[in-house]
Amino acid sequence: MKKVFLLSIATTVALSAFAQHAKSSITAVSPIRSHSVAGDHIPAAKTTAVGDVDTLGHITSADTLALYYAAGSNSDSGYMTGMNAFGDKGFAERYDVNFGTTSAQVTGVIAYFTGVVNPASTKTIKLYTWSVAAQSPNVLGPHYFNSGLPRTALDSVTVPVTALGISTVSGGSDTIKSYTFTTPSPYISNFYVGYTINYNAANFGGDTIGLVTSSQGERNTWGYRLVGGDTIVNNANVAMLANGSWVDFYTEDFGVANHFFIFPIITVGTAATSVEGVTRNNLTIFGNYPNPATNVTNIKFALAKATEVTISVTDMSGKVVKTMTENYNAGTQIVELNTTALAAGEYIYLIRTTEGDGMASKMSVIK
Asked: Exposure of 72 by Cβ count < 10 A (0-12 exposed, 13-18 middle, 19+ buried)?
């Protein structure tokens, strides 16, 4: 069985007294899993399983990937974004659809899990998209409200924990994986992407999985906004408690300000004419055109501020076939992708910024 290595640091996470769980005993937070880093790129091993991806993309020293213990510095407590002794059952990130978009589809999910998995495990997770509920009270006080928690399940796919890309080999590397929904629904409003898992919090049964995140303090959205006399908590990400209720991850659960490494695979209308798209903080994705492509396609996205962007293209077996990294100014960008060397078929491209924003879409190549 593979060992999961965590790096201990002296920093104490300042947990809020309003957390739903009794988690104030957390005194050590550990960025997970030491990687051998070449420059700013963190490699991940390629396997032959469908959906595996052989590179994580571009990560800067300011955007450190992490996995945090749920309590203290003992992995027996589980992980903040996975199976843990508190029985948390799910985690999700919010994505916004700009007004005017009427034909967006989320065709699947890209996610990065780590931890320990028994090769004989029969556990499964369920990857979901959910609609966003109306504002609801937050436990901070009578004039505090959540901006919108997950409401109705839109699409889902069940995945065995043994198929999450978590290595079962000692010293092995984990991999990002992509998953496809069978019959994607149309999306015309904001949504969440995440997963749920059922397990016995008192006995993990040889499995302890968690969703990789950015590090504490690397959340790139404001935690609150003021509306009249009320304070609205911006629900960038959320957790499902053992009782099945959703709460804000930062203000009502662990008090950690970060983002989860889980991205939707999106199709948005016709990118050539669309003036709207799907937004995640600094990044808005419009799609690509023409699609299908023969020799060239144009990937269209927009940035709220200047940043470095990496576009990684993978085939449907998970092999990265092309990667482009460049600095872009704020505004709408159209990046030409030469497809002459690509075989006919379907591909997924992941757009990721150095701030940790990322979304993916699917394209086709014909000959």
From this structure: middle
Answer whether residue 133 shows pLDDT above 90: yes
Average pLDDT of the chain is: 78
What pLDDT, in 10s, does the model give residues 287-306? 899 999 999 999 999 999 99
Nearest-angstrom CA–CA distance, 177 and 224: 32
The dihedral sign for the CA sequence 275, 276, 278, 279: positive
Q: Is the pLDDT of residue 323 over 50?
A: yes
- Counting every residue written for the chain, the total comes to 367
What are the structural domains of the chain? Answer: 41-264 (no CATH), 270-365 (2.60.40.2550)
Q: Which whole number is the average pLDDT over 314-341? A: 90
Cα dihedral 231, 66, 125, 166 in deg (nearest 10) = 170
DSSP single-letter state for residue 141: -
CB 285 within 8 A of CB 277: yes
Residue 119 amino acid letter: P
Pick left, alpha or beta for residue 308 (phi over 0 → left; psi -120 to 50 → alpha; otherwise beta): beta
Least confident of 38-42, 83-87, 227-231, 333-337: 38-42
Phi, psi of 163 (to 5 degrees): -110, 20
What is the chain's percent helix, strand, coil content, to nearest 5? 5, 45, 50
Find where tokens 């700013």 sit. 40
- What pTM, to 2 d.p., does this model score? 0.75
Whether 355 has a pLDDT exceeding 70, the answer reads yes
CA–CA separation, 29 vs 336, rounded Å?
A: 42
- Residues 337, 288: contact at Cβ < 8 Å? yes
Which amino acid does the sequence have at 49?
Answer: A
Cα dihedral 12, 16, 20, 25 in deg (nearest 10): 30
